[in-house]
From TrEMBL, chains A, D:
<dbReference type="InterPro" id="IPR050771">
    <property type="entry name" value="Alpha-ketoacid_DH_E1_comp"/>
</dbReference>
<keyword id="KW-0786">Thiamine pyrophosphate</keyword>
<keyword id="KW-0560">Oxidoreductase</keyword>
<protein>
    <submittedName>
        <fullName>Pyruvate dehydrogenase E1 component subunit alpha</fullName>
    </submittedName>
</protein>
<dbReference type="GO" id="GO:0016624">
    <property type="term" value="F:oxidoreductase activity, acting on the aldehyde or oxo group of donors, disulfide as acceptor"/>
</dbReference>
<feature type="domain" description="Dehydrogenase E1 component">
    <location>
        <begin position="74"/>
        <end position="341"/>
    </location>
</feature>
<feature type="region of interest" description="Disordered">
    <location>
        <begin position="37"/>
        <end position="58"/>
    </location>
</feature>
<keyword id="KW-0670">Pyruvate</keyword>
<dbReference type="InterPro" id="IPR017596">
    <property type="entry name" value="PdhA/BkdA"/>
</dbReference>
UniProtKB/TrEMBL annotation, chains B, C:
<dbReference type="InterPro" id="IPR009014">
    <property type="entry name" value="Transketo_C/PFOR_II"/>
</dbReference>
<dbReference type="GO" id="GO:0000287">
    <property type="term" value="F:magnesium ion binding"/>
</dbReference>
<feature type="domain" description="Transketolase-like pyrimidine-binding">
    <location>
        <begin position="29"/>
        <end position="204"/>
    </location>
</feature>
<dbReference type="InterPro" id="IPR033248">
    <property type="entry name" value="Transketolase_C"/>
</dbReference>
<protein>
    <submittedName>
        <fullName>Putative pyruvate dehydrogenase E1 component, beta subunit</fullName>
    </submittedName>
</protein>
<dbReference type="Pfam" id="PF02780">
    <property type="entry name" value="Transketolase_C"/>
</dbReference>
<keyword id="KW-0786">Thiamine pyrophosphate</keyword>
<keyword id="KW-0560">Oxidoreductase</keyword>
<dbReference type="InterPro" id="IPR005475">
    <property type="entry name" value="Transketolase-like_Pyr-bd"/>
</dbReference>
Length: 387, 359, 359, 387
């Protein structure tokens, strides 16, 4: 729990890689990137790797699993946006364009590991295994998160920015005190890194040497505010060294690179090397939510430029070329995605659970006399209404 | 999602005149536009005014209250900051220390909480702890309350936290004219003002001639709103004391009560700090009965304070206890359930029935 | 700087028995020691209890309330954190999510403000927003209030902020026995508890046998304190309703009043949330007069709430308005001036005079 | 106001030094240190300098000025501690051992520049020119900070940790918007760097490219908590790169090094190169305040070790050797220090200004009716008491 121990730990791991502790903590000079936008594998020397920052290619089976989740993720994003347009869902912050990040964040984890998502991380939550309609509960206007966080080891999606990173630290700390080998992935956006809780979470994780991966999706915008007005740092990954942890930046539209970087991060964390900060460079292709109008603050040209870097088509091209995506496999993947989309459409047709009497049930373990009194007042009103 | 606030039959002074003029010109303006105009006029009137916050620049704010200000006044007068509320408030403190008049926006009520220490330990106390040498003229604008179908953390009514904190003034307009006048007054105040804007009113429209109102304000002819409650409707049988988003609900209740032959007076207190004891007490002494209506959870709230003050001051005029219609003591409910929590005209009328009319 | 709290003539049940036993054994213990023992006993009883915060480890806390716990239970059960209150509370949330029962310390009242968002948006709401699936059993200990000559930012009475926030329980003991029992109850609660410790009582002593109290508590024989107000002194002419640091002041006032032939009942409400309306109302209905005494600034405070509730419930038993003796609505004063702000027995007696005894 | 501009600015200044932007932002590999503990000048190659991190020796006149302030600072610390022991002052957080930091923080500034001190920075405030008794006002138990912040361009000493760094940013921003060339030094301790406001302040300063020097006195303790439990970073100065600013660490008991580092920092900031983060390594020689008992958490041996690095004796030895500290000069310096100490002793004998009526005067610009009512109540009480 002390810097001395941490310094030892850092110098140990950096020795393993044959580099200096600072070079271990600072991100590689170039963003980690394995696949070109058109799906071709980059030559090794252009992958952004340098000593201590090498990233092996994931296995074909692993890539196919990830690709399937990617296709489902994209389908879910677009289905949900459609449901919002149809007025069947209140609000949806789509991660269209960021699905590779979402998939990697969840798939890199093992069963007992925890995920801490934000409002934009529906696809990560789904990939973690939560049932589609459960994930969407809060977006339809219900009052609770919809799923049992403990059943899935997945926290409720957080809205107050970066507050959840500290909860992630606490979950890891509790596990560590009990001698459990739990890794936690804690997600946030580029804008959120400016909040004080981001700083406190990273510092606590480093000081207590906890296996937490802080995974930042830098999608270039915080609502309307471009990244250039959010930070002047060379990269967000550079923040790691200021906490005594390792940082890395990775192409957030390159599922292969993401899987490799995140898998290594989880392994390093699980082996006791402390927290890591991973910055994924991606792009929010759509407005912040359906309530936002992105035409007010960015040019179409920019969006179009990023369209060419789409994570789905990129991965598809690679798998096609590699002969992994047989027609049969592709059909199965589409089918799985469609099944989830149908679930969502069907679910949204059902009425939300909205018994107003329940408003008072979960404020405390048992209702205070004051709440019982207030509930009685409401029940009386409802009874009179029904009468 | 849009609520049109009531046009008040007997608004007072400037408000009345302005409304009348506007009616003549027949220009309905929204509450949001009135705020936007107040900001623009303040930027024009006083070069030390600066506006900043999250998304208030190019986007014009998520509610568009700062729409067009960056384009018109430049990026140095109205600008976006990094995403950090404590940072925004803390930087505003420093700017106010150094001659500026910052007007900052918290994007939603619950997202002002990260700034609580800055607000409580510095904004509220800097004047005091420097023996008056470092006043902090600044305005913290907070969209608040429900009625718009907002998801969790987006509909808190947090006025009690700030009203309880010595050194802060707390304003909350409920009419379009007040939106303009009170924001101008807040910006011109030498004291820090927490300015609560009822979200559900942003799109409400009234006939108000903002230009005339501006001219009146700048000629110092507009009636003061700080510490001056507004009789939103005159009545004689009981008083509804309320503010912000609940004024329109109280007005609706008064209308319904009138149909039943009960005459309710509605007092819009406008500024919670300072509080207009005089107007409130006079009304209750006259009617002998009072209900306080507010949307925030009731426990240890501004409504509690009003009840306490009224019974302290008007005890022997009271025919019944002062009752409250407030939000329940629960986290603000999600869209599908918020209507059960919000004070409603019906709930006010039910409460009215309990004011021991037979006794 | 040390205040010895009153030994109460008619404490109830467990407290009384415990006090009696201790008196027999003649062991005066301090309020601080009672808290320290409660923490040690909780660590022993339940292995999921963990204690952390600023300086709570090796140092034992700036008030020594965690003294010796790291040495006795190890650095994994009681440890120091980096200096960041939001971090401390946020980490506690995560630990409670994952099976622990964190008991954390905020070093001084005003230094809990950086954690306001975590407390308000998460500690208070996690159970609710997960439909009861993620309860957060945790205790946030906050030394509070004045009377110790503390410098600025060290003497706030911040209970109103938390009492107003749905989802938080708020406890504040005023006797040595309650310090022990209420902290044990708080730690065993399935709900988050903000535990306010009146700083000025830390060094106060009473004859209490903590071992006996512990045995009683663990045998589930101790009377519940949550939601159960304590009649600190029985009386018949008027009721003083109070809590925490003001209980001793009220007791002193009652003693002085008794000398003048006025019999005051003193109700120590113990837990602000949940609130014991029954005991409070019964007392006021009996006496017909009430004064609420609390140290926090009065505006929109817990005292306001108590006044509002009492007059709502006891209106027709009241011979006079319910009055308040509270701190002024000013930033807490510096050491040389705090005595002018703090509720005093004299001020309570002055207020008593205003309860329209002639009417 | 954007990263693009910042990146340009950073690469410009780094080019000026002929190093990479990262090397400009990261601290030199070794702490900057010009004088040995015994006062001898280190050989150039051991001063910790490397390309882009060179620090020239300050002029003799400048050193003498600083030394004089240093001696006064030490005298003030010890006088105040004595006054506390004598019961004539309520509380005093002494900076004994850290006076070199305090002196450099104030002396590097020019007239219109602002200083933002903490409760431990009495000596810096004094050096900035505030009259001794005014500085001590709040520590005697009065309710206000005692001096006019605008008259001295010196903020009230801050207690809520790191909150003042944001105020410093605001002061700099206001000045910049008006086209004024004001530099601000914002001070905090090692423990304080863990607070969220530290993070937000550095980020705001970097994004808005403001001339703020964040000056951290790493005195190894936050009350009882050692630095090793505060941060796992290689150094606090390493945090700079995560904000896109330059960082440097300096021997905080070496007045010569401090003067050189801080003077350069102020110059860089004033020239528009943005904020800097300076970490001074020093040691809190005494307990946190008189209310603290440092025997509970640290060994005497550690304190004794640091005694050998004392900033006053070190500087004195150098000046002696250099022939700058003539007997006459030394006498004058002692005299000046004694005069300040006498001021404090005399001042503390006077009663504090404690008119309770004033409690209500400065809450607002004009009293609210509520406050007027409350004041009347108190005045009535006081009148009755006097009667
Ligand atoms: C504490 C807090 N402040 C403000 C907001 C309002 N808000 C919601 S999302 C958002 C932008 C977040 O940007 P980023 O972190 O980049 O995530 P993204 O939306 O791009 O995924 C803002 C300002 C909030 N939710 N919480
Ligand atoms: C927000 C806040 N939390 C806690 C405290 C209580 N406190 C006062 S000083 C201190 C330690 C500060 O350590 P450091 O920043 O290293 O400064 P130093 O005292 O060593 O100069 C603490 C915890 C405070 N003043 N403010
Ligand atoms: Mg973003
Ligand atoms: Mg320190």
């Amino acid at each position: 729990m002390s810097t001395d121990a941490t310094a030892d730990r850092i110098s140990e791991v950096s020795q393993k890689f044959g580099i200096s502790p600072e070079d271990y903590m600072l991100p590689a000079r170039h963003m980690i990137n394995l696949l070109d936008p058109d799906g071709t594998l980059r030559p090794q020397d252009q992958q952004g790797t340098e000593p201590g920052h090498e990233y092996p290619l994931p296995s074909p089976a692993r890539l196919m699993e990830a690709y399937s989740a990617l296709v489902t993720g994209r389908r879910v994003n677009d289905q949900n946006s459609a449901l919002v347009r149809q007025g069947r869902m209140a609000v949806y912050p789509s991660s269209h364009g960021q699905e590779a990040c979402q998939v990697a964040a969840a798939l890199c984890l093992e069963d007992g590991d925890w995920l801490f998502p934000t409002y934009r991380d529906t696809v990560a939550v789904l990939t973690k295994g939560v049932a589609p309609m459960e994930v969407m509960t809060s977006f339809r206007g219900e009052w609770h998160c919809g799923y049992d966080p403990k059943a899935y080891n997945c926290a409720p999606m957080a809205t107050p920015l970066t507050t959840q990173l500290l909860h992630a630290v606490g979950v890891a700390h509790a596990a560590k005190l009990r001698g459990e080998n739990t890794v936690v992935v804690a997600m946030c956006g580029d804008g959120a890194t400016s909040e004080g809780d981001f700083h406190e979470a990273l510092n606590f994780a480093a000081v207590f040497n906890l296996p937490v991966i802080f995974f930042v999706q830098n999608n270039k915008y915080a609502i309307s505010v471009p990244f250039s007005q959010q930070s002047a740092a060379p990269s967000l990954a550079h923040k790691a060294v200021g906490y005594g942890m390792a940082g890395e930046r990775v192409d957030g539209n390159d599922l292969m690179a993401l899987m490799s970087v995140m898998t290594r991060a989880v392994r390093l964390a699980r082996e006791g090397n402390g927290p890591l900060l991973i910055e994924a460079h991606t792009y929010r292709m759509q407005a912040h939510t359906n309530a936002d109008d992105d035409k007010r603050y960015r040019e179409d040209a920019e969006v179009i430029e990023w369209k060419a870097k789409d994570p789905v088509t990129r991965m598809q091209a690679y798998l096609d070329d590699a002969g992994l995506l047989t027609e049969e496999a592709a059909a199965k993947i589409t089918e799985a995605a469609e099944a989830v989309a149908k679930d969502l459409r069907d679910g949204m047709n059902q009425d939300a659970n909205t018994d107003p009497r329940e408003l008072f049930e979960h404020v405390f373990s048992t209702k205070t006399p004051q709440l019982a009194e207030q509930q009685a007042l409401l029940v009386d009103e409802l009874d009179r209404e029904e009468a | 999602m849009t609520t049109t606030s009531q046009v008040n039959p007997n608004v007072s002074d400037a408000t009345a005149r302005a409304a009348a003029q506007a009616a003549a010109k027949n220009q309905p303006v929204t509450f949001g536009k009135a705020l936007n105009t107040a900001l623009a006029d303040a930027l024009t009137a006083e070069k030390s005014v600066v506006i900043f916050g999250e998304d208030v620049g190019t986007l014009g704010g998520v509610f568009r209250i700062t729409d067009g200000l960056t384009a018109r006044f430049g990026n140095e007068r109205c600008f976006d900051t990094p995403l950090a509320e404590s940072g925004i408030v803390g930087m505003a403190v420093g700017m106010a220390m150094n001659g500026m008049r910052p007007v900052i926006e918290m994007q939603f009520d619950a997202f002002a909480y990260p700034a609580f220490e800055q607000i409580n330990s510095h904004v509220a106390k800097m004047r005091n702890r420097t023996q008056g040498r470092l006043p902090l003229p600044m305005v913290i604008r907070i969209p608040y309350a429900g009625g718009v179908g907002g998801v969790e953390h987006h509909c808190d009514s947090s006025e009690a936290y700030y009203s309880h904190t010595p050194g802060l003034k707390v304003f909350t307009p409920s009419t379009v004219a007040d939106a303009y006048l009170m924001l101008r007054e807040a910006i011109d105040s030498e004291d820090p003002v927490i300015f609560f804007e009822p979200k559900k009113l942003y799109w409400s429209k009234e006939q108000v001639d903002l230009e005339a109102l501006a001219a009146e304000y700048e000629a110092r002819k507009a009636a003061k709103t700080e510490g001056v409650a507004r009789i939103a409707r005159a009545g004689k049988d009981a008083t509804l004391i309320t503010y912000g988003p609940s004024v329109s609900v109280a007005m609706e209740a008064a209308k319904l009560a009138a149909e039943e032959g009960i005459s309710l007076e509605v007092v819009d207190i406008r500024t919670i700090v300072p509080f207009d004891d005089e107007t409130v007490s006079a009304s209750v002494r006259k009617t002998g009965r009072a209900i306080v209506v507010a949307e925030a959870q009731g426990f240890a709230s501004v409504a509690s304070e009003i009840v306490a003050r009224v019974q302290e001051r008007c005890f022997h005029s009271l025919a019944a206890p002062v009752l409250r219609v407030t939000g329940f003591d629960i986290p603000f409910p999600a869209p599908t359930l918020e209507k059960y929590n919000l004070p409603s005209a019906e709930r006010i009328l039910d409460t009215l029935d309990q004011l021991q009319w037979e006794a």
